[in-house]
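Allow me, if you will, to draw on your knowledge of protein folds for a short while. The matter concerns a single protein, recorded as an amino acid sequence and a row of C-alpha cells. Kindly check, if you would, that the fold set down in the C-alpha cells agrees with what the sequence suggests. You will find the record immediately after this paragraph.
***
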Amino acid sequence: MTAMRWAKALVFGLFFAVVSPLVLLAWIEKKLTRSEQLFTLGAHCVALVPGLPGAYARGAYYFGTLERCSWETHVGFGTVFTHRAATLGRRASTGCYCVIGHADVGEGVMMGSHVSVPSGKRQHLDAHGRLSPTEGRFERVAIGAGSWIGEGAILLADVGPRCIVSAGAVVTGKMPGGCLVGGNPARVLRRLEAHDATPVEG
C-alpha cells in the first residue's frame, strides 16, 4: 500500500469514528426490525455535509451500513442510498444529488449528477401489473464494472460492464456490456471499442 493510500485509510478511519453513532443506530434497527427509517435518517444527515469532509463521511457511513461497500469510493454531495440492500464497488463514484435504491454498483463505475437508480420497475405493481400500494416488489439493478452513467440518467434495468449511458437516458431493458446507450427508452447506439471505456484494474 502506498503512502497516499495509507493516509486516505487513516482519514477514512477517523471519519468512520465520527459517523459511528449513526452506523450503530442503523445496525440496531437492522437487527431488531425490518424498518429502514434510522438508516434513512443517517443517509440524509451525511448527504448534506459539504466538501471533502462530506465525501469521507458518506463513504464511511455507507461502508458501515450497506450490504457491501468499499472504503475506496466517492459519494457526491446530496446523494442518498434509499435502501441498505445495495452494494458499492471499489473506486466507484457518484456525482451530486443521485438517488440509489436496491442496486449493485460495480467496481470503477462513474455516475454524473442527478442519476436515479430506483429499485426496478415493479415497486407499485401487483403480479397482474395493476397499481397496488401493498404488493409491489423491489428488484436489484446491476451496473457493470467500469461503466459511465451520464447526467440525469434513470436506470430501471441492468447495465452491463464498460458501458457509457448517455445523459438523460432512461434504461428500461437490460443493456449488454461494451455499448454506448442512449434515448428514452434507451437503446444500444453502437458498440464501444476497447479504448472507449476506462479499464478496470484487478
Observations:
- The longest helix spans residues 3-32.
- The two ends are 15 Å apart (CA to CA).
- Confidence is low (pLDDT under 50) at residues 198-202.
